[in-house]
Amino acid sequence: MSDVNFKDKSILIIGASGGLGKETTKHLIKDGATNVVMAGRSLQRVIDAKNDILSKIASQTQVHTVGGFDMLDPHKIHKAVSDLQDLGPFDVVFLGAGGVFFTEEYQTKEWKGKQIEKTVFQNLFGSHVVLQSLKREKLLSDNPRIIIAGGEGARGIPGMIKSPSFTTKKEMRAYIFDIKNIGKKYNPMDAIGVSKLFGALWISKLATLESENYTAIWFTPGLTSGTNGLAGLPPVKRWFMKHVLFGLMNLIGKAQSPEKGGRKFANCIEGKIGKNGDILGAPQGQALGKITDQKPMNPAFTNQELIEEIWQIMEELFGKF
Question: 172 Cβ partners below 8 Å, 6+ apart?
Answer without folding.
Answer: 166, 198, 306, 309, 310
